[in-house]
Backbone:
């Protein structure tokens, strides 16, 4: 691609005007983002208060029932479950929505239409052009996503010990919706969309690639999370292979008399003669459980957030390198 001639920039004149133009250009997206955040926040506040209170009262009625049939407010329980499910999906979907918008509208469409190149010839360098498209959205995305994460955690905490079917802390969507990993994923979505837009310079392909890159970041974080903080290990006897309860499992299986770990054949308790014979043949003396207790929640969150932000930095660096390539090496001019 031929290099675009860039005249001497006049930043003091053009930067404020460009910011005003950028806000006006993306006003629909800004209003949509505000509406999305406000609607989800309102739903989470309702979940935190009336919905949880009504469902908790219904569960108290159910748990107090000592007959075959008794009255309890089942619709309240179902409403809580439905509202929790949809609000959690909404919070965890934010990074992908951001990636789609960033790739399609923020960068891809302007490159496809030629608006970006026209801007570069009017005193705004490509580097400042891209920085302007990332800085303000990053601040707005961080603020909005942080609000949703805080409200989601409040709503989830309000159900602890009150809602029998409340999601466990280690449930994947709950785990991320309750902590800063979702904020980091949202910023990764912004950077992924920008990189995708610069790579494709077309709206629809950039939208799809931005979402795909965000999914890659999310998958890497999910796979790495259990290994970013030291685990706990516990051994139980062969008579009872029950799960340990409120923990995030990393691995489990059989342990032999020599301390070697092996895969669990999932036979069951030694109360069954066939299982007892199998364990004797394998020299198994117990079950091992490698896991994270609930006390590891914040260490896991913070280390995974750091990983996601590191991947975000790589995506951002890739965007600036791609910009430099498509502008013939003059993107860094200031």
Residues:
């Amino acid at each position: 691609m031929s290099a675009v001639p860039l005249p001497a920039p006049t930043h003091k004149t053009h930067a404020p005007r460009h910011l005003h133009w950028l806000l006006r250009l993306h006003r629909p997206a800004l209003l949509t983002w505000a509406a999305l955040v406000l609607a989800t926040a309102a739903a989470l506040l309702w979940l935190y208060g009336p919905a949880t209170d009504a469902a908790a009262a219904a569960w108290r009625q159910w748990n107090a029932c000592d007959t075959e049939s008794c009255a309890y407010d089942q619709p309240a329980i179902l409403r809580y479950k439905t509202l929790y499910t949809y609000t959690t999906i909404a919070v965890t979907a934010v990074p992908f929505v951001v990636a789609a918008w960033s790739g399609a509208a923020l960068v891809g469409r302007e490159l496809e239409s030629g608006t970006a190149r026209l801007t570069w010839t009017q005193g705004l360098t490509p580097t400042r052009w891209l920085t302007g498209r990332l800085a303000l959205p990053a601040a707005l995305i961080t603020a909005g996503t942080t609000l949703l994460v805080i409200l989601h955690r409040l709503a989830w905490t309000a159900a602890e010990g009150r809602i029998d079917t409340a999601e466990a802390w280690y449930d994947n969507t709950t785990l991320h919706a309750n902590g800063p990993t979702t904020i980091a994923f949202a910023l990764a979505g912004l950077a992924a969309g920008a990189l995708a837009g610069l790579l494709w310079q077309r709206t629809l392909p950039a939208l799809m690639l931005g979402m795909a890159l965000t999914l890659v970041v999310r998958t890497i974080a999910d796979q790495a999370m259990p290994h970013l903080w030291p685990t706990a290990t516990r051994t139980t006897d062969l008579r009872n292979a029950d799960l340990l309860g409120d923990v995030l499992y990393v691995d489990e299986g059989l342990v032999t008399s020599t301390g070697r770990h092996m895969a669990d054949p999932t036979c069951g308790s030694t109360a069954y003669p066939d299982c007892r014979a199998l364990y004797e043949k394998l020299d198994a003396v117990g079950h091992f459980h490698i896991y994270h207790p609930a006390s590891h929640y914040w260490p896991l969150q913070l280390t995974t957030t750091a990983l996601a932000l590191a991947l975000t930095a790589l995506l951002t660096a890739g965007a600036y390198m791609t910009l430099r390539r498509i502008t013939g090496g003059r993107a860094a001019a200031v």
